[in-house]
Automatic annotation (TrEMBL):
Record Pfam families: PqiA
Family in the record: Belongs to the PqiA family.
NCBIfam families recorded: pqiA_fam (TIGR00155)
Organism: Thalassospira permensis NBRC 106175
The name this protein goes by in its record: Paraquat-inducible protein A
Length: 428
């Protein structure tokens, strides 16, 4: 049984790491956040899924996703088509975000898995394994092919009302790629990889260190350790001083708390609130059909789906594009305000709300992906054309800013500001 220490990333409560059966999740006894999920200590399955995902990704980028036929004319699009169209239409921000979230980030995620797992499986040495594996923590939230698929289905629903649409090989590749990348991640225990990549002489914080921390008093007890945000390695202050303030396992700079976390989170959230107004006032796209142009805002797009009888799709779009952004802004604002005021109250529930809002924010990108697909596919002049609007830029900015706001916030402040200083726990 392991006696390594593991700290909760959301409340910083220390636990003694225990062996749990594969597939089970260890949770923090204080705030309920997941600490780690055990998987069988092998890289075979995740490596196989990563290689399969790479093949599917190449197919998804090499063949048409949809083919649009109307009045004897046809247009096809690929994953890259939306990026090119946004750039040509004068929307470089949208082009960059779609390229990042639907092409670059997924490719980097898959490539990182193969680059790290293949040498570990076959036993050869390549440089920079720790650096590449460290980058995964930054890449993962920006890989949004699952959200792209929902946007694709919404676009498909809109097109089938007035034209013939044929799903291409890339459409099916994307459908299979999403569960494959999910299995790639869920069948791997990151702790196993970090331990295999760690320096040979690495010393883990143990139960004995915990007892020494408990023996401290005042500020010494409150700041006796730091947790690496990338690899979750628990480092005592004395060990951090020996390494120059860097994590001895992955090399990330360590700090007790994110500097200026609350002020940066507030600044990003307030900016998102300001941009949410033009995001709903200005059209996200303009549709020209048989010489007649009509602009669509987010809400008018939902109304059109309802009028055409597409209730399930309308509910999905309304939830992702209206309910989720508003609720995320309100809930994050409440969490930040309660933290800044040092309110006690239901800290466990407040932490759960933060975790949920952090996870769901990315799904609001559905409308942006839908516009990218329609604008790239429907380009038949006065017969039928879809052009992106400024509303899409503002709305995309809202989604990105709320995501960055949640990332900037340090949830451990929820407990610190409420007077719950760093505690040394012991659970198994």
């Amino acid at each position: 049984m392991s006696h390594r220490l593991v700290a909760c990333e959301h409340c910083d409560y220390l636990h003694v790491e225990d062996d749990i059966p594969p597939g089970f999740v260890a949770r923090c006894i204080r705030c309920g956040s997941p600490l780690y999920q055990a998987q069988k200590g092998t890289v075979e399955r995740p490596l196989a899924f990563a290689i399969t995902a790479l093949v599917l990704f190449l197919i998804a980028n090499s063949f048409p996703i949809l083919t649009f036929a109307m009045e004897g004319r046809t247009e096809s699009n690929t994953l890259l088509s939306g990026v090119v169209t946004f750039w040509q239409e004068g929307f470089p921000f949208l082009a960059f975000m779609v390229a990042l979230t639907s092409i670059a980030a997924p490719l980097m995620l898959i490539g990182a898995y193969i680059y790290v797992l293949a040498p570990l499986y076959f036993g050869f040495v390549v440089p920079g394994l720790r650096a590449v594996w460290r980058v995964l923590a930054v890449i993962r939230p920006w890989s949004m092919l699952d959200v792209f698929l929902i946007g694709l289905l919404v676009a498909l629903t809109k097109l089938t009302d007035f034209a013939d649409v044929i799903a291409g090989p890339a459409f099916y590749a994307v459908c299979f790629l999403i569960p494959t990348t999910l299995l790639m991640s869920t069948t791997l225990d990151p702790r196993t990889i970090w331990r295999r990549l760690a320096p040979e002489n690495l010393r883990y914080a143990t139960l004995e260190d915990l007892e020494e921390l408990r023996a401290g008093t005042g500020q010494e007890k409150a700041t006796g350790w730091m947790t690496c945000e990338i690899c979750a390695f628990v480092v005592t202050d004395s060990a951090a001083r020996e390494t120059g303030g860097k994590c001895p396992r992955c090399g990330t700079h360590l700090h007790h708390r994110k500097s200026g976390s609350l002020s940066r989170a507030w600044a990003l959230l307030v900016t998102a609130v300001v941009l949410y107004i033009p995001a709903n006032i200005f059209p996200i796209m303009t549709i020209t059909y048989l010489g007649r142009a009509e602009s669509d805002t987010i809400l008018s797009g939902v109304v059109v789906l309802l009028q055409s009888g597409q209730w399930p799709i309308a509910i999905v779009v309304f939830t992702a594009s209206v309910v989720v952004p508003i609720m995320k802004i309100i809930l994050l604002g409440w969490v930040y305000a309660a933290t800044g005021l040092g309110l006690a109250g239901p800290l466990r529930e407040r932490t759960l709300i933060y975790r949920v809002t952090e996870l769901i924010g990315r799904w609001s990108m559905i409308d942006v992906f839908m516009v990218s697909i329609l604008a790239a596919l429907v380009k038949l002049g006065n017969i039928a054309t879809v052009a992106p609007g400024f509303g899409a830029v503002a709305f995309c900015a809202v989604v990105i800013l709320t995501m960055l706001s949640a990332m900037a916030f340090d949830p451990r402040l929820i407990w610190d500001r409420a007077g719950m200083q760093k505690e040394q726990g012991m659970s198994s």
